[in-house]
Amino acid sequence: MKLTRRTFLRGAAAAAAPMWVPASVLGRGRPAPSERLTLACIGFGTIAHTTGRQFLNNDRVQVVAVCDVNRLSGHYGYQGELEGGREYGRRLVNEHYAQKEHRDPATVNYCRVTEDFREILADDTIDAVNISTPDHWHALIAVAAARAGKHIYCQKPLALTVAEGRAIVQAVAAAGVTFQTGSQQRSSIHFRRACELVRNGVIGKVHTIRVWLPGGHKDWSGLAARKDPEPAPEGLNWEFWLGPAPSRPYCPALHPLNWRHNYDFSGGMITDFGAHHFDIVQWALDADSTGPVRFFHGQAEFPPRDALYNTATSFHFEAEYASGARMIVDVAAPEHGGTGGIRFEGENGQWIYCARGVLNSQPEGLVKTKLPDTAIKLYASNDHERNFVDCVFTGQPTICPAEVGHRSITIAHLANIMLRLGRAELRWDPVKEEIIGDSEAQAMLSRPMRAPWSLA
To answer: Which of 234, 322, 347, 453 sees the fewest Cβ atoms within 10 Å?
Structure first.
């Protein structure tokens, strides 16, 4: 049975004792419920701790549901100290709203939970979804959400393949919904300032962009040693977690979070942080609707292809734009920090370097250059989640819509294809989105999905 707003609220009221009345209904405090964006979190692990709280702290949003194939997964985070799962998400939501309404969290239930995202999409009382699942699920959920008319905030990397990314773009365009890719560096003043300086020619014509990305296989969960199959933890639907990916037994070294090092679920650090830094390169070069035309000088170290962690541990590659600008990508050295960074090199030895919380240049004072009123000004956002909400209400494009997120992660996918095949060069047609003259590489723009899952 398709849920309606009435049956949904009736269910929530039955689980809550007593029924709550927001202060805003009485004309004070938050906007009235009818004026809020109702949002569901699909996936509640590491990044949802950030995005979920941002949405909870936005008075124009009401988080009404949490979906996760984990009921309660225990520790789940980049440092292994965070909790995750749908019951943790529900508790977080209930405690947040209970505090705002001065109620006892034990007496209310503001949030429903489910393990099946399709229940969320069938609920016509839910306006928007926050997709924070592993990469291999992004396209299936985003395409289905667009077809269901939901506004979508989707984590980066946008999709597992180039074909999946294009499917998201097409579904979002056909549905006319608001979409934000979670490439939050676009909402950072340091990255925006660097891109504005480059776009306004402060360092002259850019000839080289150097990008440093994290390498290796970091053990975020502390469970990397447990690579042998084990029974799945109680409350984890492992088969559902795998979804469209090839079948394999559960092992703690993959889940939680270290799945990023397995090619069935991710492209490794090239897609993980490449999604962030390549996005900034595209923005600075005014290339949001296109991309490089050639990839070359690729070198990488891979574990055996059948290893549990089989993404590249170290890598180097270069990419060339039609303008002649060349991007050189390497593993970050210690001086580039844990997340790497980007250096735009122009004329006369001038450059601008940006990283998270860092903006500097050569000459040193160049980043303080005052731009004239007639200068190119880039889209300004200081809060990525708030920008998404703003755009849902205004109907304006977000700072990182689907097409932009797709074009940025395409760079990472093409680099991985070149490196995995050991090619000396790949030529790319960004208009047709085709690899030129290499049918084997072209076939890797998509991957089969395990039945019964399909984007059809």
So the answer is: 234
Cβ neighbors of 219 (< 8 A, separation 6 or more) are 258
Whether the model clears a pTM of 0.90, i.e. scores above it, the answer is yes
Please give the pLDDT value at position 7: 34
Report the candidate in 356, 178, 175, 156 with the shortest Cα–Cα distance to residue 271. 156
Does residue 220 share a domain with residue 168? no
> 95 vs 41, 83, 131, CA distance in Å?
16, 15, 22
207: helix, coil or strand?
A: coil
Single-letter code of the amino acid located at 207: H
Closest CA to 327 of 268, 412, 402: 412
Please check whether residues 234 and 99 belong to one and the same domain. Answer: no
- Residue 23 to residues 60, 103, 137, Cα–Cα distance (Å): 14, 12, 38
Asked whether residue 451 is assigned to any structural domain, the reply reads no
Number of domains in the chain: 2
393 domain residue, yes or no: no
Backbone phi and psi for residue 350, each to the nearest 5 degrees, phi listed first? -80, 145
Q: Where are the alpha helices (DSSP H) in 75-178?
A: 86-100, 117-121, 135-147, 162-175
Stated as kind and residue range, the H or E segment containing 354 is: strand 351-355
Look at strands 341-345 and 208-213 and give their pairing. antiparallel
Do both 211 and 92 map to the same domain? no
Judging by DSSP bridges, how do beta strands 294-301 and 425-429 pair with one another?
Answer: antiparallel
pLDDT at position 76 is 75
Query: What are the residue ranges of helices labelled H in 57-113?
Result: 86-100
* Structural domain for 19, as ranges: 5-185
Domain finish residue from 131, 158, 185: 185
Same domain membership, residue 171 and residue 224: no
What sign results for the dihedral spanned by CA atoms 220, 224, 229, 234? Answer: negative
* CB 140, CB 51: distance < 8 Å: no
| Domain edge (last residue) among 134, 155, 185 | 185
User: Residue 13 has what pLDDT?
Assistant: 31
Q: What is the pLDDT of residues 185-222, one digit of tens each?
A: 999 999 999 999 999 999 999 999 999 999 999 999 89
Contact 38, 155 (CB under 8 A): no
Greater confidence (61 vs 456) lies with: 61
Region of 321 please: left (phi>0), alpha (psi -120 to 50) or beta: beta
Confidence class of residue 34 from pLDDT cuts 50, 70 and 90? confident
Tens digit of each residue's pLDDT (9 = 90 or more) over 337-387: 889 999 999 999 999 999 999 999 999 999 999 999 999 999 999 999 999
196: in domain: yes
